[in-house]
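quick one, 97 residues, struct below
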Amino acid sequence: MPRLRRSLDRRLLFTEAAELLLDIYDAGGENVPLSELVVKSKVGRQSVYKYYRILAEKGLLEVVQETFPGRIYLTLTPRGKEIAEHLKKIEELYETT
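---
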């Protein structure tokens, strides 16, 4: 499946970290496989790996890593979900103008 590229307008508003937060939110926000984000995200592979760690350090994501088969799952914290909801509203407002 081809990776979707962000539009120029959206790139003006959102950083890659915010894009990743929105991608997790759009995927349900709970137990989102990191491997799924790498494939489906509008953010590049290296950026996904870079920013999920930063978002977790900032308290916006909980990271669960299975030892076997080594999968990583991401869940938005309440604060991360609140921020993602605000970003979603901003995105919707911007797209209606």
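The two ends are 30 Å apart (CA to CA).
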